[in-house]
Amino acid sequence: MEILASVLVGLVAVLHAYILVMEMFLWQKKPGRALHGFEPEMARATAPMAANQGLYNGFLAAGLVWGLVAADPTGFRVQVFFLCCVVVAGVYGAATANPRILFAQALPGALALGAVLLAG
To answer: Which residue among 67, 71, 91, 119 is least enclosed by CB atoms within 10 Å?
Structure first.
């Protein structure tokens, strides 16, 4: 179960690194605009906000990687903390921005959190 938990945490970290790249670097380019269906003008107007969100997603990814490499009990606690942050951010994003965030962010975070707790 520990290996499964680590793999899931790693996948959630990769997901948030991907979100960082999309929001900070590709927001105004075709892949970023296609993700949200934005016209170039809307992407340009919202780029500073998206970059800020991307940075926060990068912090989530970094925290999850820290949790994977840190020795226990610190690693376990860090993983639980950052996965809780991922789940809360996903639920909030789904409620306020786009319901698909629940499945794209909160669900993977919740699955990883459940695996970490079961393995711990």
So the answer is: 71
Give the tokens for residue 119.
């393995």
Q: Cα separations (Å) of 18 from 13, 55, 62, 100?
A: 9, 11, 12, 16
Alpha helices per DSSP H over 25-73 = 30-36, 40-69
- What is the model's pLDDT at position 99? 95
Tens digit of pLDDT for each residue in 42-64?
Answer: 999 999 999 999 999 999 999 99
CA-CA distance, 65 to 23, in Å (whole number)?
Answer: 20
Tell me the two tokens of residue 18.
């991907």
Tokens of 108: 């993977």
Which ranges of the chain have pLDDT less than 70?
Answer: none
